Structures are given as structure tokens and as C-alpha cells.
Amino acid sequence: MARRSRPESAPVPGDVLDPRNDVIAAGPPQRSVTPTDEVVHRATGARGTVEKWHRDWVVLRLRGGSTRRVNNLAGGFSMHGETFSLTGVSRTPTSTAVRRTASGSIAAPDSGAKVARASRLWVEGDHDARLIERVWGDDLRDAAIVVEPLGGIDDLDAAVARFGPGPQARLAVLVDHLVPGTKEWRLTENQRSGASPDVTVVGHPFVDVWQCVRPGAVGITSWPEVPKGEDWKTGICRRLGWGTPQDGWRRILASVDSFSDLDPTLVGAVESALDALIDLT
């Protein structure tokens, strides 16, 4: 005869031997917040509403209007004196619905066309620019930031010198395959060294921005390996039966609806770039 499991019972209040009554062992409570709740990031003291939530990081909208990205750790936040682990932003319906952009930001009210800032976000190619526009387009328009494809970073130092970055004309550069020991790492060394406080170099570890789209979003289990020396995009499309690279790119771009379809390394890199360009306080 199979043994019957004992029914689950509630912890007995005051029973110190019941681990369910051990608050320390249980860890800090988990909770979500609303878009209007003001929280405190305990490690940094940053105080603001939650602009974006990710399991590893959170973007706070500070009281002065600027944003700050902080680590999302267990027990990392507090509100009204209560310490808790932040698990997300609730979507509780209110009289005025909160609209979010594809990047997860709270959408700003439509204020019409704006004059572009002098600051720029540089990317390596057209595909990078279009992918960023698809996810962060609303944020870029609200901040009046222009994304410009470079066509590669072989002459990055010269391009930066021509641009002439300054406090009101900052520059952020998003680089593919930014990994120690690579050509991209060497080509960006001068700009990453902090020679100019108005230049920020960010990147992701993938050979091409296509790989920054999660495989599941495009209906595959993983991105195929392409041998060195073979054109990467052509090799990907051949192995997946996607036709030409143009056909493959249309499929990839159409599969992206929000930041959740992208690898966190790209999301974090773009958020860091926008923080550097927008926060001019």
C-alpha cells in the first residue's frame, strides 16, 4: 500500500523549532512595486521609481529626472522601512493606464518633434541601428538622441577626433564582439582608456548583432557555428535554410518585439550608453 503523504500544515506561531518561523533563514520577502512607488537601492542610496526591471539590474528614475542603473540583488531595496527583493513592476490597472515602450521604459507623454542633441550613439552597421531603433526608438526620440552607423570601427580614433566630443556633445559607441584579445578590443583601447570623459565605449560578446537576438525569439534552439573564413551571415542563413542574408535579416528583425527578445549583454550595453548620453547633470 502506498504511503499517504502528510497534509501540509501552517506553521505554529511561536514554534522556534519550525524553520518556517525563521525569518532570517527564509530571507527577505519578495515583492513587486507599482510604477509610481518610490524605492531606495540600499547599496547605493539611490532613490526613485522603477523605470525598468530585469532579474539582474534595475533602472531607477531619480527625483531630478535622471536615470541610474543599479544591481538587483536579494534584499537590495527598501520602501517605507521594509527591506525586500524586487521581483518586478506590477501592472495593476489604474484610472490612467501606464504605457511602456518596447525597451520597458515608462512612455513619456507625446511632446512633438524635438531638436536633436549634439550627442550621438554610434553603432557599427545598419542592422545594429535598426535593431536599436526597434526596441529603443521611443526612448531615443524622447531624449532626442540620434543613432549613426559607422560602417566599422577600423578608424574609430580618427572618427572620434573629427566628432570632437565635449560635455554637451557626448559620444557612446556600441561595438560588436568586444572581448579581451580580439581586434575590436585593440581598436577601442584608446577610447576605453578614459582619455576623454565624454566618450563611452560599450559592447557585447557576439560576432554579430544578429546573435544578440535570443534564439527562441526566431524559432531556433541555438545560433549555428560558422567556421572562420566563411561569411558569417551567409553561413547562418545556409545552415538555417533562411535564403539570403537579406531574407534572414527580415526574419530576425520581425521577431523582435521588446527588450525581452534580446540577450541581456546587449540590453545592458545600450542602457549604459543611453545613461551616459542622457544624464547630463
Notes on the protein architecture:
The chain is an alpha/beta fold. Among the domains are: 71 residues, SH3 type barrels (Roll), CATH 2.30.30; 117 residues, Rossmann fold (3-Layer(aba) Sandwich). It is built from eight helices and eleven strands. Strands 1-7-6-2-3-4-5 form a seven-stranded mixed sheet, covered by helices on one side. The N terminus is likely disordered. It holds the Pfam family DUF3097_C. It comes from Candidatus Neomicrothrix parvicella RN1.
Strand content: 15-25%
Please provide the ordered H/E string of secondary-structure elements.
HEEEEEEEEHEHEHHEHHH
**Straight-line distance between termini:** 72 Å
| Low-pLDDT runs | 1-7
Tell me the total number of β-strands.
11
Tell me which CATH architecture of the domain at 120-213 and 256-278 applies here: 3-Layer(aba) Sandwich
Spatial strand sequence of the major β-sheet: 1-7-6-2-3-4-5
CATH fold naming of the domain at 120-213 and 256-278: Rossmann fold
Task: Give a quick account of the main beta sheet: strands, pairing sense, barrel closure.
Answer: 7 strands, mixed
Rounded Rg: 23 Å
The DSSP helix count reads 8
| Helix and strand composition category | alpha/beta
The amount of helix comes to: 25-40%
Shape: globular
> What is the mean pLDDT?
84
Please give the CATH class of the domain at 120-213 and 256-278. Answer: Alpha Beta
Region (Disordered): 1-36
Protein name: DUF3097 domain-containing protein
InterPro entries: DUF3097_C
Organism: Candidatus Neomicrothrix parvicella RN1
